[in-house]
Amino acid sequence: MLLGLVLLYHGDGVQGHSPRRPHASLLFLFLVCLLSLFLAPLALARTSIDDSKDLLVWEVKGGKRTRLAPDACGDSFAAAVANNDDEFPFYRGVESCWQSSRDLVVRLMLPEGYPDSVSCDYLEYSLWRGVQGIASQINSILSTQALLYAVGLGKGAIPTAAAVNWVLKDGIGYLSKILLSKFGRQFDVNPKGWRLFADLLENTAYGLEILTPVFPHLFVLIGAAAGAGRSASSLIQAATRSCFYAGFATQRNFAEVIAKGEAQGMVSKFLGIMIGITLANYVGSSTSLALSSYFMITGIHMYCNLKSYQSIQLKTLNPYRASLLFSEYLLSGQIPSIKEVNDEEPLCPGLPFFNAHKGQSETLSLEAKDAASGVYRRLQLGSKLSQVVNNKEDTFALFELFRNEGYLLAEKQGRFHVVLKEGSSPEDMLKSLFHANYMYWLEKNVGIEPRSVAEECSPGGRLYISLDYVRREFSHFKHDGKQSGWFTDGLIARSLPNRIRPGYAVSA
């Protein structure tokens, strides 16, 4: 274009020459402009391609990631294809089939957006649960076959009598669900331990049912005991399952996590049914073979259950987990991670075999573990006021010190008694546990000896000092704990039902 303008006006600026006719210059200018219209996009495309050589773009769909590369024109992206794909069409087809099958399984078995839509412990838990589901289904088939032999269906017995015995057995077993529902709050406090107990109860019920052919005259009695165990087990499993799924659903996809868990369970049952039928045909009516198979399958079942529960990382605070956090916070000012605390928490405090720790903690110190264990053993949540004070002076001093709190706290006979006020919240219970942990810290590190309740409530007393500290530091602990991923809005505990409502009578 610039060259055309120069040629157009060149003749006017040269002396001694006649002006050049402008037609040729105008034609040249037009051709240059037309050529630039075609060449400019190509040059721009080449620039875009050159600039995008180092640009990596990935298309993310759930857990699947596909690399995209710029196309020939450089104005869009397409799925990147390896250069040697055409050389091996068979392998490319197998790989494509495998990828399609894998994507189908992921869509059916895992929540949408996996692994970002669930917590990090979800996959390990699901794998162990899948294996234990297969083992449980095998035991179920073996026990059902034994029940059928015991009731006499394999020996020409009257079907009506067999049906009556069967219904009577189940009817008695259903009562266990009603009786066990009163422990519902305990399932929230220690869901792992209760779930392990439910699995042990279920396996015991299977064992009793396998023994029924040996004692056919006790069919109703043994069947009722086994039915009660299985009914109680199913209640505990259903109650605790919601605690686990709530922790997995990090994006509030609670219903989807439940749906995928049911799908995984159906796959385990399907595999278990096939293996169980094959094993049942081999066992037949032999009680010895059935018991041998039962013990082997039960060992696999319980081991997988133990590993699955150890992999769960609960973020809520029960008395033991909260004591571990409080003890380490008081000693070092740090908040332990969720994994460390869950690895340290015992599944069953009374059974050391089930309480093997998974590794050395990075943050939790030995002193913090001992302190948490000590506070947990000495804590009594929901004590009666008569267990703490027995005279007017101590009562007034305690009421005055804790006037603005939702609880009262005092140590008596080596136990930390927490008296809850009427309307106390889970946050008040969490605060009272923090207070008890600081009382324990003062006892071990400062050496303040216990005195009367009235003296400890006065300035300089242990209750007075500790409550002042708790009022200043509890909010900081809640903030730091929340930053670490803990749910610090309250304590999950089954306290005693005792409550008080302080008040002062007005004389006439």
UniProtKB/TrEMBL annotation:
The chain crosses the membrane at residues 26-45, 270-297. The keyword Aminoacyl-tRNA synthetase does not apply. One of its GO terms (cellular component) is chloroplast envelope. Coiled coil: none annotated. InterPro entries: RUS_fam, UVB_sens_C, UVB_sens_RUS_dom. GO terms for biological process: developmental process; response to UV-B. Residues 378-489 form the Root UVB sensitive protein C-terminal domain. It comes from the Eukaryota. Residues 99-331 form the Protein root UVB sensitive/RUS domain. Residues 1-45 form the signal peptide. Keywords: Membrane, Signal, Transmembrane, Transmembrane helix. Belongs to the RUS1 family. This is Protein root UVB sensitive 1, chloroplastic isoform X4. It comes from Ananas comosus. The gene is LOC109715775.
